[in-house]
Amino acid sequence: MRICAIDLGGDVDVRKIVSKLGVRPPTAWDEPIEFSAQGKDLLLYSFGALIGIDVEPSKLVEVAQGLLEFVEGGRLGDLEEVEVLEGKGKEDAIYVERMSGEALRMIAFALAQSVALSRMERTMDEIEEEVEKVLSEKRMGRRALKVAKELMKTRHELISDVMILEKPSAAWEDEYLENVYEAASKYLEIGRRYRVIEKRLESSLETVHLLLSFHSEARGNFLEMLIVLLIIVEIALYLLEIL
Fold this sequence. Notes:
By secondary structure, the protein is α+β, with helices and mostly antiparallel strands. It is built from seven helices and six strands, in the order E-H-E-E-E-H-E-E-H-H-H-H-H. Helix 4 (141-161) packs antiparallel against helix 7.
């Protein structure tokens, strides 16, 4: 059994897409929007991950392109696939003791988190390039503020929207499903990738904060010099008047 996923590039407008598709809205943060397209059942998570279980990748991409209108600034990310096998094996696939719809949904959720993480990894690449450009500029204030805003937005998305470190509700209620989710999360290296992004965020934020601090200090020194200059000019004018 193969499960494939693709990232839509951002949060989906759940209200609009539910109305368009005529399906039931999700009732929990980890519950996907379920719908059918081209004869296949698909799962769409609110943080912008589209999942197909036993669906041809080309068909999933085709459906994803039609959903971009419901994502602000959406763009398709890389397609990710995993193979799910029953039994025990090596690290070439995700193995489960018994195949079931619930187990496949646990793996689908982990894969949805993985493609969302891939989006954030690409975003961090772009932000770090911007930080490098800021470092090479003499006037950095406005651009540094823009980069800081992007960093804070990415951190919020990582922690609040995707909720990378959160397990699906079903995993808390069923030990077998919890084990399946943990196995999928380990296979996709969710925890390690999260920690890497977190460190990259902290490093970039620290750099930008230092740049803004230097900019603020330099601006303050300039204002002080300007005030001193004005005082000198005023004294000079006063001396000219009395002479």
